[in-house]
Structure formats: structure tokens, C-alpha cells
Write a structure and sequence with these properties.
By secondary structure, this protein is α/β, with parallel strands linked by helices. It folds into 6 domains: about 5-130 and about 260-290, MutS, DNA mismatch repair protein, Chain A, domain 3, CATH 1.10.1420; about 150-255, Orthogonal Bundle (MutS, DNA mismatch repair protein, Chain A, domain 3), CATH 1.10.1420.10; about 295-515, Rossmann fold; about 515-575; about 635-710, SH3 type barrels (Roll); about 725-800, 2-Layer Sandwich (Ribosomal Protein S8, Chain: A, domain 1), CATH 3.30.1370.110. The chain is about 50% helix and about 15% strand. The radius of gyration is 48 Å and the shape is flat.
Length: about 800
């Protein structure tokens, strides 16, 4: 990569105007100077810098703009302090501001770099100067004065100076207004010379005032005399001012020493904050120009979406036309043709600026999906009336530039030529232009060129390395649209544009007669193709609109179907609402009376437990029936005569899918495999056949096996003194020993269900007890307590 591009290339691409806009967005002079010194940077730094700009851009867009890095260039002050020099108060004040801003920006970056990791690098580079910030902030006020609150001696001396001045002014005023001195005094005022108060005395009366002569006016009419009465006071004033100056110098030396101890850090932070100011300006510029961070690719190619000229975007944000363009993938040379003033030159500069911005690590004026490789060099020849310098290339001048390109360009060079080979015989010019482009293609350059030559437009038809593109022209209004069409050559519309400029019809008609018939037929064909393309685009737009309308209608129909299904479900569900209310009433009644039931004897408790179990069975069956009814319209119930092992089934009661394993001999229950490993038995009437179900075992129907005893859920259990084990307050080891002992006793007393109280606590005791129950020889199964039993603070276990 070149260290810098030629000034001529930068001028052609209007970089100085871009540079000016960037400089205006910087908050500091060092930042503005950095923009002036911008050069191409290595690829790894390009990606890093673009990511930082993106992070700052996102912060600005969400309203979290970074503090402006409005820093002073303190490099000379820090360097002088580092060499032992004493800084002036104004210089120390600038360093104070710099240090304060440095801490402020570091604090800002600390708050945001977690969300925007690319900014962590800048945060880590800004070294803290908290101690120096404290020293300077306490020593120098916000107005740039030495803080007398810290340095009391200054206040004392200044008070003495003020008192002395008052005495002097009072004394000298009495001399001036004394009647005996009225004819001696030139003016009834006084002045100071070298900090000493003096009178303005008439020259011919100077012997009348005793004292020291300090000066004579230019005219010689006035002499400046220090009266003898003021000598002692003037001496005191001079001494006090000298003492004040020495104290101030001592303070400045002390503060300069503090700066000298940190001068390397100051210089390092200056570089970091200068760069931070620049990338913040780049982020603001990205927003103004609708630029984005592209994907950086290894090859020197580009694929740009919605590319636009950044300066036009700033000047005409509503009317700037964006275009898609690619180069280097399917072809290496893009030949742009079309009407004059149609936007060819703007398109060339836009492509060049995108490549240049990428080389500098700036966001490119294109969409965020764009891809671009980093070119080593950009070589260009653009001379047009739109350039501020008004530089128009002559034939010889263009040949000189093209010759330089032919000698230096390679596979990582972007070549941009506006109106290649003009100002000579058209046929020879076209032939020379084709030969030049073919030579560049052989060197694997990436080329964008504009032309009016028909021969170059035809080149893309026979050689896949070339591709045509055109800037379109509205055939109805005879105005350019500035849109770029890839794949179709353009028409110059020279005669139509001439008519717009008022050229006589007689002249235009004669021109048509003189145009070569072959060229006329080619342009007519191109115009016909362009019209067809416009019609196709209009039809595509209509199809797109119809597709969007159909999509909206489809979404409406799907919503109506979902609403219909919901209404059907709600209607079916409504049958069970009264039952669910009744169930709630049962639960509330049981909860209200549980406390009174704690003292029932064993037989009464067992009777009530059986009654609750019956209620539970009734509730369970009704809920299962409601569930079965809900799915009966959608799925086919499982017929035991058609049941096959491996058949995919749906279990309505738990709303899960499974695979049929076997049926019992009574044909009332079936064993189903859940999740590939877990086997469970369900009522046959709760099973439904899933659509497209195929048996896993093709040998036929499954064999009927003896029914296995079903494992019923543990019923609701009432806590009594006979069936309760209270382990609260025990250590884990102690509780497990007590648990085994109590379970053994209850097993011998034929107690079927046991309530184990362990409480909540930290959960350690509860977990240890439930882990022990899994391996206990007395326990068949267990579950956490339910509402009314003690909740999760108890465990209900069924003995074997």
C-alpha cells in the first residue's frame, strides 16, 4: 500500500472538500491537524478503526455523545516542563484543562466500553492523571488564576500591596490638591513609572517640588517627579510587588515540577485524545453522509449497495440518488456510458471515494451490506466542468497520465478514467482506448471508465472481462435520472440535449442525416432495450405489490383461522368451567378443615382419606374426559384391534407424544415409551393415533401381555400423630438415622402413607431426606407435599 496518494488524485476525487468537512467536525486543533495528515493505513488497523467509528456512531445516535475532546496542543509545554523549564500560568492552565478533559473522557469510556468493546482500546490507552488533576485543580481556579485559598501568602501580600497603594494615593492626592502647589502641577492627576507613583509637574517649576526626577515628556513641558514624601511608601510598594512576583514564580516552579513528573503520560494522552477527537468527527461525518462500515475482504474488489457521493448527500440529502455497483467479481472493467450531465463523472468519483475512504479506515458512503477490498493505489484521470479547479485534460495530457498508469498499475490498483481518449480522431481514439483497456485488463487492474465510443460499448458483448453500465435518461422529460443500470450500454442523447439548449430544429435534422446508419440502428436498439427494461421493472414493482397484498391477506386468513380454533376450544372448555369452580370449592373446604382434622383418631383419618381419594378420582376422570373430548375432533382414537407396536401415539391427559409398546390382556391400558427410554402405562381411551403413523415392527400386531399393576398417584394425606415424622431442627446425619428408625416402626404398624416434616430452611435437609428416600427399602414412592398438606416443607411417602 502506498504511504500517500498523489495530490492530483486527491484533488480529482475532491478529497480536500471532504477533508474540510471532517476538520469542521473536530473539537480541537490537534484533531484538525490529524485530519490534514491522514494517510492510508494497514488492513488490520482499518477494521479496528472502522469498528471504533461504528461504536461512537451508535452512541451518538442513541443520544450518548462523548464529551467533546476540545483539547489544547500541550506538547511544547509538556516537553519544556520535562526538561526542567518553568511554565507560565496560562500554559499551566491549558494543561489543567487538558488533564481534566482526559479524566472526563476516560470516565465516559469506562461507562460504555462493556457495550461497545472496540472502545476499550482507547480507554486503556488513556492513562489516569488523577493526582496531577488534583494538584492543578486545587492550585489554579476555573478562571485561570492562582488559587489564593490554597496559597495564603499571596493573599497576604496582595492585601499589603492594596493597603500601600491606598496610602500612596491618599498622600499624592493631598499634594496635588494643595493650594500652594496649584501653579506648580501641570495636571491634577498622577501616574506610575516602574511601579512608583509620580506627579506631573511643569518643567519650569520643577525646583519647587523636592524629590526624584524620573522622566520628561516628549515636548519637554512636563517632568515626572516622585515627591520625597512618597519615597518610603514607593520603596515599600516595589518590595511587596517583588515579593509577590517571587512567590508566584515559586508556585509556578512547583506546579511545573508536578507536570514534569507526568510529561510522558501527558504526551501519550495527547496522542490518544487527538485520535479520539478524529474518530468522533469521523462518526459524525458518517451520520451526515449516510455512510456505513462495510465488510472488508481480502481481494481488491468491491460490491457497493446504495453508493452515493458524500458531498451531494450533505448538500442535497433528499434528492441524492444512490446506486448499486460491483467490480472485480465477474468482470474487471466497468464501462459507463450515457448522456452528458447524466451523472457518469459523479459515479466515477463515488467509486473512487469509497475505495479511498476504505484505505483511510473511514466508513464508506454506501449501505451496511457493502463489501470492499483494500486497494494499494488509486490512479485516475478525471477532467470535467464539475471540478472546482476547472482542469480539462487535453489529448496529450491524458496520454501522459495513461502511460503512467500502464507502467505502474497492478492487480491491487483501482483505475478511474473519465472520457477515455478524447480530443482526437474518433475512430483512432476508440481503437486506442480499447487497446489501452485490454492491456490494463491483462495486468488484472480494476477499471471504471466512462465513454461515448460505440466500439467500447460493443466490447462487453464479446469479452466477459468487461461489463456495460449506463446512466439512465427519462425519455419523456429528456432529463437525466442519475440512476446506474448494470448490463446495458447508454445512449448519449446529444441531439435531444442540444434541443433543450435551444439549438434550431434545422440544425438537429441535418445532424440526424449525417449520423452513420449503423450507429443510429445500434442506439435505436439500445433505446428499445432500455424501454423494455423500464416496462419490466414496472411489472416487477406491480408483482411485488401484489405479492405483499397477498401476504397480508394470507396473514389475515391465518389470524381468522386461529381465532376460529380459539373459539372452538373456548366453547368446549366452557363445559368444564362450572366443574372447575366446584373443584376449587372442594380444595378450599379441605384447607379450612385440615387444622381440625389433625386430632382425629386413626380410623376417622383413614375414612376421610378414602373419601378424599374418591373425590380426587372423580375430578381426575372428569378432567381426562374434557381433555379427550378436546382432541377427539382432530385425532383418531386408538383402536386395540389396529394397534401395532411402534405406532406413534398422542397421550391426551399429559399432551405428549410417544411410541406404543404393548397392550394389556383386558385391552383397557397400554404401555407407551416416552422420550425413547421412559415406559409408562395409560388408559387406552386416552391414546390417539398421530397422522402418518407407521409401525416400527412390521411383523404385525403386537402381542397381548399380562397387564402390569398400575402405579396410582399418592393420594392427599391428612397429617396425624400416627403417620407423621418431624425432623425439623436436626442435623442431616441425625435426621437420617431418625428417619430410618421411624419408617421401620411405621412399616411394622402397617401405616401405608407417611408425612415427613423437614421444613424449608436452606434446602439441605430437604434434599438429603429425598435422596435417602430414593434408596430406602421401606419406601415405594414419594412426592412433595401439596396445598393443605404443608407444601414443599413436607414430603409424602408411600410405604411398600
Amino acid at each position: 500500500m502506498k504511504k500517500s496518494l498523489e495530490k492530483r488524485i486527491l484533488d480529482i476525487l475532491e478529497w480536500p472538500l471532504i477533508e474540510e468537512k471532517l476538520r469542521d467536525l473536530c473539537a480541537s486543533e490537534p484533531g484538525r491537524n490529524l485530519v490534514f495528515r491522514l494517510r492510508p493505513i494497514p488492513e488490520h488497523k482499518i477494521k479496528s478503526q472502522m469498528a471504533k467509528i461504528s461504536a461512537l456512531k451508535n452512541l451518538i445516535l442513541r443520544g450518548d455523545s462523548p464529551p467533546p475532546a476540545a483539547i489544547d496542543d500541550i506538547s511544547l509545554y509538556a516537553a519544556r516542563a520535562g526538561k526542567g523549564g518553568i511554565l507560565e500560568l496560562e500554559e499551566l492552565f491549558k494543561i489543567r484543562r487538558f488533564v481534566h478533559l482526559s479524566e472526563k473522557i476516560k470516565s465516559f469510556l469506562f461507562e460504555v466500553y462493556d457495550q461497545f468493546p472496540p472502545l476499550e482500546d482507547e480507554y486503556s490507552k488513556i492513562e489516569s492523571l488523577a493526582e496531577l488533576n488534583s494538584i492543578l485543580s486545587s492550585s489554579i481556579t476555573d478562571e485561570g488564576n492562582i488559587n489564593e485559598g490554597k496559597y495564603h501568602i499571596l493573599k497576604k501580600i496582595r492585601n499589603e500591596i492594596h493597603s500601600t497603594r491606598q496610602s500612596l494615593e491618599k498622600k499624592i492626592s493631598s499634594i496635588i490638591h494643595s493650594p500652594e502647589n496649584e501653579k506648580i502641577i501641570q495636571e491634577k492627576t498622577y501616574t506610575t513609572i516602574n511601579s512608583r507613583y509620580v506627579l506631573l509637574v511643569k518643567s519650569n517649576q520643577r525646583g519647587k517640588i523636592k524629590g526624584n526626577l524620573h522622566d520628561i515628556s516628549a515636548s519637554g513641558a512636563t517632568v515626572y517627579i516622585e515627591p520625597a514624601e512618597l519615597t518610603e511608601l514607593n520603596n515599600n510598594l516595589v518590595m511587596l510587588e517583588k515579593e509577590l512576583s517571587l512567590e508566584i514564580q515559586k508556585i509556578l516552579a512547583e506546579l511545573s515540577f508536578a507536570v514534569s513528573q507526568n510529561h510522558y503520560v501527558l504526551l501519550s494522552n495527547l496522542r490518544t485524545l487527538t485520535y479520539f477527537d478524529f474518530i468522533t468527527a469521523a462518526a459524525k461525518f458518517s451520520i451526515k453522509t449516510k455512510s456505513n462500515e462495510p465488510k472488508i475482504i481480502s481481494n481488491a474488489i468491491l460490491r457497493l449497495y446504495s453508493a452515493h457521493h458524500p458531498l451531494l448527500q450533505i448538500m442535497q440529502p433528499e434528492s441524492t440518488v444512490a446506486n448499486d455497483v460491483s467490480l472485480g467479481m465477474d468482470f474487471n472493467c466497468l464501462i459507463i456510458s450515457g448522456a452528458n450531465t447524466g451523472g457518469k463523472t459523479v459515479m466515477l468519483k463515488t467509486i473512487g471515494l469509497c475505495a479511498l475512504f476504505a484505505m483511510y479506515g473511514l466508513h464508506i458512503p454506501a449501505g451496511p451490506d457493502s463489501e470492499i477490498g483494500i486497494f494499494d493505489n488509486i490512479m485516475a484521470d478525471i477532467g470535467d466542468d464539475q471540478n472546482l479547479s476547472q482542469s480539462l485534460s487535453t489529448f496529450s495530457g491524458q496520454l501522459s497520465i495513461i502511460n503512467d498508469i500502464l507502467q505502474k498499475a497492478d492487480h491491487r490498483t483501482l483505475v478511474i478514467i473519465d472520457e477515455i481518449i478524447v480530443g482526437t480522431n474518433p475512430r483512432q481514439g476508440a481503437a486506442l482506448a480499447q487497446a489501452i483497456l485490454e492491456n490494463m485488463i491483462e495486468r488484472d487492474c480494476k477499471i471504471v471508465v466512462s465513454t461515448h465510443y460505440t466500439e467500447l460499448k460493443e466490447l462487453a458483448v464479446n469479452d466477459s472481462r468487461f461489463q456495460n453500465a449506463s446512466v439512465t435518461f427519462n425519455l419523456d422529460t429528456l432529463r437525466p435520472t442519475y440512476e446506474l443500470k448494470i448490463g446495458i450500454p447508454g445512449i448519449s442523447y446529444a441531439l435531444e440535449i442540444a434541443r433543450n439548449f435551444g439549438i434550431k430544429d434545422s440544425v438537429l435534422n441535418r445532424a440526424r442525416q449525417l449520423i452513420d446508419s449503423k450507429e443510429t440502428s445500434i442506439e435505436a436498439l439500445i433505446e428499445k432495450v432500455q424501454r423494455y427494461e423500464e416496462e419490466i421493472l414496472k411489472e416487477k414493482e406491480k408483482v411485488k405489490n401484489l405479492s405483499e397484498e397477498l401476504l397480508l391477506e394470507r396473514e389475515k386468513i391465518e389470524k381468522k383461522q386461529q381465532e376460529l380454533q380459539r373459539l372452538i376450544f373456548e366453547t368446549k372448555k366452557g363445559k368444564g368451567i362450572d366443574f372447575l369452580d366446584e373443584l376449587s370449592q372442594y380444595r378450599e373446604a379441605i384447607a379450612r378443615h385440615l387444622e381440625n382434622l389433625q386430632n382425629l383418631d386413626r380410623n376417622a383419618a383413614n375414612n376421610l382419606s378414602q373419601e378424599i381419594s374418591k373425590i380426587r378420582e372423580k375430578i381426575t376422570e372428569q378432567l381426562a374426559e374434557e381433555t379427550r373430548e378436546r382432541y377427539s375432533d382432530e385425532l383418531e382414537p386408538l383402536d386395540p384391534q389396529r394397534a401395532c407396536k411402534g405406532m406413534a401415539v398422542f397421550i391426551a391427559t399429559i399432551e405428549k407424544e410417544g411410541v406404543l409398546d404393548d397392550l394389556d390382556s383386558s385391552g383397557k391400558t397400554a404401555q407407551v415409551i416416552l422420550g425413547g427410554t421412559i415406559k409408562a402405562r395409560f388408559n387406552l381411551k386416552d391414546l390417539f393415533i398421530l397422522p402418518k403413523s407407521t409401525p416400527a415392527d412390521k411383523k404385525g400386531a403386537i402381542k397381548i401381555k399380562q397387564s402390569m399393576p398400575e402405579i396410582d398417584p399418592i393420594p392427599c394425606t391428612i397429617q396425624t400423630s400416627y403417620n407423621t415424622i418431624d425432623l425439623r431442627g436436626m442435623r442431616v446425619e441425625e435426621a437420617l438415622i431418625s428417619l430410618d428408625r421411624e419408617l421401620d416402626r411405621m412399616d411394622r404398624n402397617n401405616i401405608g402413607t407417611v408425612i415427613i416434616i423437614h421444613g424449608h430452611g436452606t434446602g439441605a435437609l430437604k434434599q438429603a431426606i429425598r435422596d435417602a428416600l430414593k434408596m430406602n427399602i421401606y419406601v415405594r414412592d414419594f412426592r412433595p407435599g401439596e396445598y393443605g398438606e404443608g407444601g414443599d416443607g413436607v414430603t409424602v411417602a408411600r410405604l411398600r
